[in-house]
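Possible regression after last week's pipeline update?

I re-ran a chain I had predicted before the update to compare outputs. Posting the input and the new output here so someone can diff against the archived version. Not blocking, just want to make sure nothing changed silently.
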Amino acid sequence: MRAAPAPATLTTARADCGSADYAENMAGEQSHFGGVRLHVVSGKGGTGKTTVASALALALAGGGRKVLLVEVEARQGLARVFDTGPLPYDEVKIASAPAKGEVFALAIDPEAALLDYLDMFYNLGRAGSALKKMGAVDFATTVAPGLRDVLLTGKTCEAVRRVTGGKSTYDAVVMDAPPTGRITQFLNVNSEVAGLARVGPIKNQADSVMRVIRSAHTAVHLVTLLEEMPVQETIDGVLDLRDASLPVGGVIVNQTQPPELPEQALSRARIGKLTHSGVTAGLIAAGIDPNMAKKAAPGLTLEAQRHAERVELQKQERSRLSTLALPTAELPYLSDGVDLGGLYELAAGLKDQGFA
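New output (post-update):
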């Protein structure tokens, strides 16, 4: 088990992002990340990474901003979150935000991205489509996974740098990235392509991507739950990102549950001193029929103990996360599931806590 790293802030290396037109139109005095234009969202599987990325995009789009939400894992997770049909390999509007803000979404397909790349650098045109039919495109991205990551990150970084009418096309780009265990390798594309090409277009593309990713305009946020394994993976992920000189952003704690009982009752429940008879008496005092109260007491006592243990676990894991000394937001557990209304609720929480 790795120890928590020493406190650190966003790296300030390469603030130019590789482009003179890199405009800083995301400034917000209350935000921890006012100068950030590429928000990479990662997290252990099952922590709600895609949901949080979607909520962050909505939060950033508030105030009339235009935000692109990018998916790179070909799971169509964004389509499920926004309850829409499968997303094409195109930038399509997927939601609106307060004050005429807009969220666009893009599901990057590695094969289509490779065809774009071949057409851009080698003018293959229709020949690229022929390669796809022959299976050559799929073969290339399978035998050279480093190339696949360059294509996925490259398409995202192109959207970050793009300018329309003299200003940035998007005020911010949010990437729903691979899980924490793979995020450092995924983003560190220079090392990934070292064995593929030391010069030429692929190497140049990787260098261009790294200028964006390592800049002060990028932040990698990690999503976690207040449970031992996700928290440890988050701590390890922060260490790995820092070791690779990649810009750590903040920690977003998802699905938190507030205490439902007073502290004294929680303490008694946790150590098993909340008795059936005591719970029965409390229910009767609250006006519950005595027979019903007696039947309900065992189940309620057990539920109270489990809740108390959960609250204590959250307290311990919250303390471990605090050693990272990173901006942290907490989002509530939505008992009715996450629909579009729930997404807006989570987005408001992220904005209130300085992530947008």
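Follow-up from reviewer: compared with the archived run. Residues 4-29 have pLDDT under 50 and may be disordered. Marking as no regression found.
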